[in-house]
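Quick one:
INPUT:
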């Protein structure tokens, strides 16, 4: 799968995706990621990518010409849909990430300032996606979130695909509590069922706790505290 990102700050994507699961997938050729400088597609000596909004108002708006030029230059390499990151867009969920992971690629346009000329949405964009009901300084961080969520669902990216199959978010849950050694630490003990070796009981316990609604006191059994203080 191929990801092409159009941004006025393409340099921020390199450090983020040079490590971890996505970094290994890029190095191994499972996915491809390229970040393109929008200014490279802006005409004129000053490479201007923004201008004042028609009708007045504060701030600047990203111009359509460089975005169209950037997408048209990328298109021969990436047949996937064009995605805009907008706070009013379709909410990013695990189900949406699964849908996008079946695409041959994504071309992601990162907004800045007061937004993007709406002709980009009308003529180029296939989807508008939001990572939450809040406003950020630009689309770069949402683009990183989207890429990470989608890339790990591409076959072969996550080494142990069982970790994808057990992901409760796929069914609308919130995962379940995880523990590792030591079994007891500072008076806090791992639930006995997880130490039992009874895989059926463990599966039932995880299902029961899959939506994250159980208080910490119910997840771990305290076996004492030192000097009457909380561990």
């Amino acid at each position: 799968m191929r990801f092409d990102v159009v941004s006025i700050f393409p340099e921020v994507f390199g450090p983020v995706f040079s490590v971890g699961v996505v970094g290994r997938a890029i190095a191994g050729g499972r996915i491809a990621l390229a970040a393109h400088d929008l200014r490279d597609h802006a005409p004129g000596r000053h490479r201007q990518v923004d201008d004042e909004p028609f009708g007045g108002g504060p701030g600047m708006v990203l111009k359509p010409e460089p975005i169209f030029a950037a997408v048209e230059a990328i298109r021969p390499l990436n047949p996937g849909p064009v995605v805009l990151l907008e706070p009013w867009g379709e909410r990013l969920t695990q189900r949406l990430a699964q849908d996008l992971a079946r695409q041959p690629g994504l071309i992601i346009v990162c907004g800045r300032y007061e937004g993007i000329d709406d002709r980009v949405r009308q003529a180029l964009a296939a989807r508008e996606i939001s990572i939450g009901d809040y406003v950020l300084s630009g689309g770069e961080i949402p683009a990183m979130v989207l890429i990470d969520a989608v890339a790990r669902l591409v076959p072969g990216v996550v080494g142990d695909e069982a970790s994808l199959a057990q992901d409760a978010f796929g069914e609308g849950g919130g995962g379940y509590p995880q523990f590792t050694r030591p079994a007891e630490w500072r008076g806090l003990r791992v639930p006995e069922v997880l130490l039992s070796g009874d895989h059926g009981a463990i599966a039932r316990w995880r299902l029961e706790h899959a939506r994250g609604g159980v208080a910490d006191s119910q997840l771990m059994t305290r076996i004492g505290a030192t000097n009457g203080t909380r561990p």
